[in-house]
Each structure stands twice: as C-alpha cells, then as structure tokens.
Design brief:
Length: 361
C-alpha cells in the first residue's frame, strides 16, 4: 500500500455545502455556542466525582473488602465516563473555544493513568482521518489475536474470537497505562510526532513523571493510609481497569466494526474512491440514539456519525445535529447507518467478529 493516502474530490459538493449551512444555521437560530453548555459543566463534575469520590472513601472510611472492591468497580465507570465525556471532547478542541481549557481538560486522561498526547495521535490523527482503513487506522489493525479488518491475515484461531474478544477488550486501559512510554517512542520512530527533539524530550519527561505520580497515588496511598494489603490494592486496581477497558472498547467498536459500515482500501497509488466526508459516512454508524441516559454517559459516542463529521463540536449538541445529518443524507442519497438500540448494535458487532474470524478477502 502506498504510504500516503489521498481522498477524492467531492463528487456531490452541494451535499457538504448544504450540511454545513444547515448545521451553522441551527446554532445561529438557537443563539448557542458549538461548545459546552451548563449541562456539560455539571456532567464534567459528576464524571470526575465518580472517579475520585470512591478513592477518597477507600482512603478515609473503614469498610469491608467486598465494599472496597465495589468502590474500585465504580471508579472503573468513572474512568470510562471521564474519558468519553470530558477528555474526548477536550482533545478534539470541542469542549471549549478556549484552547488552554481544552488542553487542561484533555490532561484528565493523565489523571486516569493514560497519556493524552498518545491518544491524540492514535485517535485524532490516525483514526479520524483514516477511519476503517487497514494499515492506517490503529483501531482496526490486528492486535494480539484479534482480527478487526478483512484485509488483515486470517488465522485459524480467529474463528473463536467472538468468544474470547471480550477478555482482550477489558485490557484496553491496561495497555495504555503500561504501554504509553513505548508507544510514545514508537510514534516518534514512525514520524507521527512532528515536534523538535527538545520538545520531545520534555514531553517524554512529563510523561514519565505523570506515570510515577499516578502509580504513587493509586498504589501508594491505599498502602500508606489504609489496612489494605498489596494484593488487595492490586485486585482493586485490576477490577477498576477491567471495567473501564470493557466499557470503552465496546462503545468504540460498535461504531465501526458492525454490519453496514465498510472497510475501504486505497488503490495501489494510495488514492481513496471517496471524499473524506463520504468516507466517514460509509465507515461509521450511530446506535441507541434515543437512549438519553446512555448518550449522557458515553459522551455522545453513540452519535459517531455526527462526531466524525463535526469532531470540534461538543457532544451535547449531537442529538440535535443527528436530525439534520440524517435528513440531509437521505435527501442527497448518501449512506447513513444507525442501530436503534444498544442490543441491536451489540449483536451486529458479535456477528461481524464471527464473520471476521471466518471470511478471507
């Protein structure tokens, strides 16, 4: 495959112009910002408290071991909630029009134990531009014994992946927490970071310091201020990250690795058959759009079509934008994939995993 990917020119430029005009008109008529709302601010506080409050309770309130593990379990939901609802918008510069605010809110990811800079490269620079393109989009590149792309090599054990994939999904945040330093080095070697050597060394120093602080607090504080034994703290840490990893992996996978969204490869010259906006429509799906609680918790990531089209708009506006996007795509006969329920999207993902484990393209 050609290392450079180029997208085609707009085949129907009126579609893009109409969609952008209608979206801009919506914000103009409502007299609202494309960024955060008061509800977004309160959500940010709730998500951070969901992560921090159980930890404070573990440190300050004597409780039986089973309840300590429940606290770690809730922290796992907090990690996923902060990542999806706060860090994600901020890293896309969609939380606020103030870029310093976006930067600091993006660093909540380091508070969770992972690295915001690595995330921006993996998610913003690779996934959002090269969505579902094997070899470019790390979300569908082969990992360990999982096959997410029909263009990747098919092994015998892949036919069982719809059974064992869930275990590896749960390891998502583990891989980030423990693999960020090597990932930063890899990104540098691959040329994904276009910063000076001095800036790179400084950012690497900050990454290492943030890791030391994270592990010092998450492991050190319970050992210093409670009667928990080392293995009990480790068990709680494991429960916390298994919970967060499962939630995050599943939400992201149900937007792209389901029936409907395509996996499109470039030709031998690296040229894609569609424009970028059409490519996003062809490779992405919404799910469970009418479930307000789910939409609130996952930070609008069940509106992935709208997110891929307008990543710099805060997710609180996606339900309203979805109506505009769906109407416009239908009007111009453009693809628009949506699963009405979480269960429907989940079962489609299972069927897709099963197909990926058996079909060689």
């Amino acid at each position: 495959m050609n290392n450079k990917i180029t997208f085609a020119k707009e085949a129907v430029p009126e579609f893009k112009k109409t969609l952008l005009r209608r979206v801009n008109q919506y914000f103009s008529e409502k007299g609202i910002s494309k960024h955060y709302t008061p509800g977004m601010l309160s959500k940010t506080v709730v998500m951070l408290l969901m992560y921090l409050t159980p930890f404070v309770l573990i440190l300050s309130v004597g409780m039986p071991l089973w309840l300590v593990m429940v606290m770690y379990f809730i922290m796992g939901f907090g990690i996923a909630g902060v990542g999806m609802s706060v860090m994600h918008d901020a890293s896309h510069a969609g939380y606020s029009k103030n870029q310093k605010a976006n930067r600091w809110l993006g660093l909540t990811m380091n508070l969770l134990g992972a690295d915001c800079y690595n995330w921006k490269i993996k998610h913003n620079k690779l996934h959002h531009v090269f969505t579902n393109i094997y070899g470019k989009d790390e979300d569908i590149n082969s990992r360990v014994i999982l096959r997410f792309a029909f263009a990747s090599p098919l092994k015998r054990y892949h036919k069982y992946q719809h059974f064992y994939a869930w275990f590896f999904y749960s390891l998502m945040t583990f891989s980030m927490v423990f693999g960020d330093v090597s990932k930063r080095i890899h990104n540098r070697k691959m040329g994904f970071t276009n910063i000076s050597a001095r800036t790179y060394r400084r950012s690497m120093t900050w990454l290492i310091i943030s890791k030391i602080l994270y592990f010092g607090v998450i492991f050190g504080f319970p050992l210093l201020f409670t009667n928990l034994l080392w293995w009990q703290v480790l068990l709680g840490f494991t429960i916390m990250h298994l919970t967060a990893g499962t939630i995050l992996s599943l939400v992201f996978q149900m937007a792209h690795v389901v029936e409907g969204p395509e996996q499109i490869s470039p030709d031998e010259n690296g040229k894609m058959p569609d424009s970028l906006i059409v490519h996003q429509l062809k490779t992405t799906s919404d799910f469970s759009r009418n479930n307000k609680w789910l939409s609130w918790y996952v930070g609008g990531l069940n509106f992935q079509v709208e997110h891929h089209l307008f990543p710099k708009i805060c997710h609180v506006h996606y339900p309203a934008l979805a109506k505009i996007v769906e109407t416009t795509t239908r009007e111009f006969n453009m693809p628009y994939y949506v699963y009405e329920s979480f269960a429907a999207a989940f079962m489609s993902h299972v069927r897709t995993l099963k197909k990926l484990g058996r079909v060689k393209v």
